[in-house]
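Session log. Operator J.P. requested a structure for one protein chain; no other inputs attached. Running the standard single-chain path with token output.
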Amino acid sequence: MFKKLMLTISATWIYVIIYYLNRILNLNSKGIYNAIIFYILNSKIKFFILIIGTLIMIITPIYITNKPADEDFKKAKLIELEDNSFVPSYLGYFFISINADNYLTMISFYLIILVFMYFAGVEYFNPIFLLLHYHIYKVESDNGVQFILILKYNQGVVRKSSSLNNLKLYRINNLTYVGKKV
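Structure written below.
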């Protein structure tokens, strides 16, 4: 449950970062540097929350990708690359966070997004995975079960199902795994 919560915060925290950046940029009457200093000095608790959430967003995917594999997959069939299917979600976060006109509205929207993502079971997608050169695939096991695979593949993007043979993966949730293929 804790792992799922950390992954959900990690996947949705970009909304809060965009909100804060928008607020800071709106204070830009004396220059960006002065606006950031002003915001930090006058909103210490908000700044602390921003730092903690940002650390969760960055550290959680790094921690998950370094966990030892606990499951073996002999054969898997590539269905599709899923990286781009999350772009509309993040555009939605962007537009909502830019339009949140106060802190209470931002918190309300964030909590709704957080709860939805937590119970929807899609807490695995985080832009940090893409920065770490992981890609997200929809895959089918040799038993016919479809699952999400977050995989770092030395040769870039997986294009053939044969590249998914003999995988050692770490289970994130019932239908999501993360691993590396060297």
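Operator note: The radius of gyration is 19 Å.
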